[in-house]
Amino acid sequence: MRIINFLKSRPFIQSIAAVAANAKIFGFFTGKIWQGNSKVVCVPGLNCYSCPGAVGAWPIGALQAVLGGNKHNFSFYVVGILILFGALLGRVICGFLCLFGFIQDLLYKIPTPKLKVPQKIDQPLRRLKYVSLAIPVIALPILLTNQFGIAPPYFCQWICPVGTLEGGIPLVLGNESLRSMLGFLFSWKMGILVFTILTSMLIYRPFCKYLCPLGAVYALFNRFSFYRMNVDETKCTGCKACEKKCKMNVEITKNINSPECIRCGDCKSVCKQGAITSGFCSRRQTEVAA
Amino acid sequence: MTKRTRNLTLYAKYGLLAVGVLFIALGLLREEQLVVLKKAVKICLECIGVG
Known about the structure:
The structure holds 2 protein chains of 2 kinds.
Chain A: H1 2-8, H2 10-21, H3 27-30, H4 59-67, H5 76-89, H6 92-97, H7 99-108, H8 119-126, H9 128-143, H10 154-158, H11 162-174, H12 176-179, H13 184-202, H14 206-210, H15 213-221, E1 228-231, H16 241-245, H17 266-270, E2 276-279
Antiparallel strand pairs in A: 1-2
Helix pairs in contact in A: 4-5, 4-9, 5-15, 7-13, 9-15, 11-13
Chain B: H1 3-29, H2 32-40, H3 45-48
């Protein structure tokens, strides 16, 4: 039973997902990235395709590549993949399958004082991730192009700390020619990475809450996804133990399928009445109206 | 959740699934997957903070 519980545990699933998305481990020793055809497929979570171990493409980078190219101003392929992932799983991807989410979970376990962001600041900041999806990921690659109609991946270039962590550091360490090219951009991105790491120790998943454009996409699908959570109104006593436990600050009894819920299941584990359930099945349990 | 809302959510779920599959098929017809592959198999210098 213990083994089964371990196999079903979130950290185990997150570890498996991290290894599966970065299965070409030899790349970390050679300082090169995998160039196989598997990279035509996007992985569901945030995993930089310039990571030496990456076996797939990351959807937001792929979206910027298509939008910023000179052939298409819309990507049916990447948007279709995002809709498919979103409709099936919603933000369960953030909670279970995203490597950077897992890294932030581990950083938050480091015993440091924890900060609770006041709601007045937290709520407007949560909307920032939609801005980061709309402007650097979608608008700028379409509108701000060079004379050949090509645009760089603005979000990845100026905001994303993951490329530096997963790709930049291992590749620069293993590749002398890349080391000779370092300049202001690398320092800027290292600054963002260090800031993200430090804030992740103090605040639970700050990148997911405030900046991640992929999280913003999946958040839009949380209400409609096949994977859902439910509160059984007949069992719920309104003790709000679930809301106290929730590190994403979701008002579970009011809106359990909130765009902010990453389906981590902490609320389920703390509910003594067993009022909270989750899964793909459409249960006939009453969901407390939003 | 009212019956009407539940039905709407159900339609939205399957509708989104269908749109997702349709979009992927359209993207494949336009050969967008080759743009994705071309980007993903080269080191993205901007992404890693080098260029």
